[in-house]
Design a protein that fits this description.
The protein is built from eight helices and eight strands. By secondary structure, it is of the alpha+beta class. The longest helix is centred in the middle third of the chain and has 16 residues. The mean pLDDT is 82.
Length: 212
């Protein structure tokens, strides 16, 4: 039986000017039919132009007032995270679902805000990004299942996953193509995660996923 392994794929620093052809060309000749292509969610979001620099924002009264009502350990107590959410999802939509989400959390229902405002979902550990994105607020990519299906189809791989790997043995699968198990992919990548914080290694190939 062929050995299951994770092979990192180095690329140039990906930007919003890149297309999926960049991803495809980076792994041409490396992909086998039983492999799974892995792409960090951060890289996917940057390619979708889903990031913003704090200096580009101009928070208003509503953002400043509401974020001050929140505890300091809440990410939305950060003025620029609150402002970025209101900019992407809309001020009143953000405000209403933030309040409703907190009330629902008291009853045990989590992530209500991000379910109704998915465009405002973000990666919190943005400081780990490589320049010039280390000072940006980077949102989570949209349409991850569709992206995975496209990557798998265009590369000839068995499947694809969009993944967040921030710390050793801590892996979050953001989306997979239909034939890939998120649980199995997370288990494999937790043993040998590729680098999410370093943008020049935003990809990896799970070699022989089908046989593993």
């Amino acid at each position: 039986m062929a050995e299951l392994m994770v092979v990192p794929v180095s690329t140039s620093v990906l930007t919003s000017a890149d297309t999926w052809e960049t991803i495809i060309s980076s792994c041409v000749g490396m992909v086998h039919p039983g492999d799974v292509i892995c792409l960090t969610g951060e890289a996917a979001a940057i390619m979708q132009n889903r990031y913003i620099r704090p200096e580009e924002m101009q928070p208003g009264f509503l953002e400043r007032f509401f974020c001050r009502l929140l505890p300091e350990d809440d990410p939305f107590s950060n003025l620029y995270i609150m402002a970025s959410a209101m900019e992407t999802a809309g001020k009143w939509k953000t405000l209403i679902w933030n309040i409703l989400g907190r009330l629902c959390a008291l009853a045990g229902y989590e992530d209500i805000f991000f379910i109704h405002c998915p465009e405002a979902d973000f990666f919190s550990a943005v400081a780990e990004s490589m320049p010039p994105y280390d000072k940006c607020i980077i949102y989570r990519p949209l349409g991850v299942k569709k992206l995975c299906e496209e990557i798998a189809a265009r590369t000839g791989a068995y499947g694809a996953v969009i993944v967040e790997t921030r710390e050793w043995k801590k892996v979050t699968i953001l989306g997979t193509s239909r034939k890939v198990s998120a649980r199995k992919a997370a288990h494999i990548l937790a043993k040998a995660p590729f680098s999410s914080g370093k943008q020049h290694i935003p990809m990896a190939i799970i070699r022989n996923y089908v046989q593993g």
